[in-house]
Amino acid sequence: MPYGALVVAVASTGLLVAFAPRHSLLSVLLVFVATAACGVFVVLEQRQGRVGPRPVVAAVGLVFLVALITPPRASNDIWSYAAYGRMVSVHHASPYEHVPADFRSDPLFKEVSPIWRHRGSVYGPAFVAFAAGVTFVAGDSPTTTRVLFQLCAAAVVAAVLALVWRRTRSPAAMAWLGLHPLFGATVVNSGQVDAFVGLAILAGALLATQRRGVAAGLSIAAAALTKLTALLALVGLALWGWRRRERRVAISAVAATGVAVTFVYLPFIGGAFGVLDGADHTVTPGSVWSAPAQWLVGHDAGRDLSPLASNTTLSVLFYASIALVAVVAVGVGWRAARAERAEPAVGAATSSYTVAAQYTLPWYAAWSLPSLADHKPSLLAWVVWIQAAVLLAAWKLPSPVEGGVLETGVRGLLLYAAPIMLLAAFVVAGTVARGVRFRFRHAAREATRARTTS
């Protein structure tokens, strides 16, 4: 039975990555088949422990191999990475002060999605520097550029899995992370920007657990210098340090992150924050804000409006979502900070963005899932894991809308009902349920102590 689940997980993810249409109900079905098979394998391996690490490594490697030989099919972000990198390595210009359309003669310009040709880099200096290095090596070849970015993505995810194995020694934990269809899709679509954020956050959490505050802070700074939203990890780390009386670790980490981010961003602060300030406030498929946006704005929650169009209602929802993310991050992070290790609090606080933000994509779950991976993942970790699959399935819905009873039902579930239920489950799992388990264990320990004393 475990081997059967392993085969189904690999086969369905491979079909999803290499052959399934970019947007279709078949792709949605494959997402859930792959996720269910992965979940079944993890549960069976936790109970029986018969498979061991080698078949899991082989299965993950096979998925990555399929991803590496397949050109990006669900996202063209790789060409935006290349455009920003080439601005530095070839044109010696700042991607915060220029846009890809400023270099129309560049041989890779035609590959960039039209919607992003007039936008500066939304990524931090660390990732821009990385992209500049890749494009310098790749030259003018689109194929070489694509392969190098995908190889780097695979290497980053492999490093994440190596850290998870080193910490847990659990094949189930590696399968829980590496065989989730999200990671196959992340590699094939060159989402290493998010995989790297997850790697840096996990490394920071592990270093904090080892009481190495400055190193932890610098690691989280590397994540924040890729995407500023990674600073949520610092919230979880600070809460853990406060509750575990490791305040020196927390203070050192916060100080190191603050100094590093400020120092590196300072030369680019005007252009970088100008780009972020001018970002559109789209409500993405699978976001918990789709329902209110559809009610207030219509037009498929505002997604049918002209790209990057200014909309006051969507802007208000954006700031409301930021407030919700902050409240949820502190709430679940505070509960998770009771753990002996820093990873649960860091992962819980970081995952609040994926669950509660207005603009959230499937690959964003790669920020938090590595820190939440364990030989027996918590209830909150399972909620985030499932929510990542729902986000990926929502991203795979037919576009444009084809209609029909089945599609209408699936669309309503994935876009409007499921995100709200998952947010509620996330809050319960991260606050109420964790508190109940803590009190139950405390009562059990007291009862055991009383029997021993008597």
What is this structure, in a nutshell?
By secondary structure, this protein is mostly helical. It is 69% helix and 0% strand.
Produce the secondary structure layout.
Elements: H1 2-18, H2 25-48, H3 53-68, H4 77-89, H5 125-138, H6 142-168, H7 171-178, H8 181-188, H9 192-209, H10 213-224, H11 232-243, H12 247-265, H13 269-277, H14 290-296, H15 312-336, H16 343-356, H17 369-372, H18 379-395, H19 405-453
Helix pairs in contact: 1-2, 1-3, 1-8, 2-7, 2-18, 3-7, 3-8, 4-5, 5-6, 6-7, 6-8, 6-9, 9-10, 10-12, 11-12, 11-15, 11-16, 15-16, 15-19, 16-18, 18-19
Strand content: under 5%
Helical stretch tally: 19
Give the SSE string.
HHHHHHHHHHHHHHHHHHH
- CA-based gyration radius: 22 Å
What does this protein structure show overall?
The protein is mainly alpha-helical. 69% of the residues lie in helices and 0% in strands. The chain is built from 19 helices and no strands. It has helices spanning 2-18, 25-48, 53-68, 77-89, 125-138, 142-168, 171-178, 181-188, 192-209, 213-224, 232-243, 247-265, 269-277, 290-296, 312-336, 343-356, 369-372, 379-395, 405-453. Helix 6 packs antiparallel against helix 7 and helix 6 packs parallel to helix 9. The chain is globular. The model has no long low-confidence stretch (mean pLDDT 89).
